[in-house]
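Same chain as my last thread, 160 residues:
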Amino acid sequence: MMPQVSASNTPDAQENRRSEDLDEKDLELISLLRRNARAPIVALARHIGLSRRATQDRMARLEGSGAIAGYRVVEGTPGTIVQAAHLLARFESGKTCDQIAPRVKAIPFVTRIDSLVGEIDLLVSVDADSIDSVEDVRRQVASVPGIATVTTALVLRRHL
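reply #2:
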């Protein structure tokens, strides 16, 4: 989240305004929660150098402001996720992420969808139970109307 001044009411502008209000402790707390949203408050407080109560208050403020919109389950105990991959999709001319992302979101094993700037339009993260499932997801993504090409990058190892 990069601080930026904007008077617009677009979602991006709202996120930028929100990030202006985040201090170093907020950013550190959010980073810790990204890694482990179930970390005990006491451990989070110790790590960022605040009291348990101050950390709880900070989390409540971040949730109330929308800086933390919720917590999610990250599936995958050893043996559950056999193969992870990223699919890099390019759109046909004139197509947008808003048109394509909802169709991709409905595909099983898709865990994240990011709009990109540059040669690649959409980055689709996949956590699957087999290499065959990754290939099936790739076929489904490639068949979405408006997608011109899909390149598959298999994950060898996750470091974070």
